What we know:
single chain; 65 residues; elongated
Amino acid sequence: MEHAITPEENGSLVNAFHLSMADFQKEANEVNKAEEASCSLQLKNLLLTNLKLLKLNEITNVLLF
């Protein structure tokens, strides 16, 4: 199924991508500042990071195709 993206949609997707990247980098910096985290906290952070990367991947795929 194909979907034609209008310039307005493309602009909003680019903005969403940039906002998601900024959030991802901000949270990555916060995690790096944390001293020592428990195993469960590290697992939680890993899962959240994976979800954010999946979201960014979906946005990127929409922008490329």
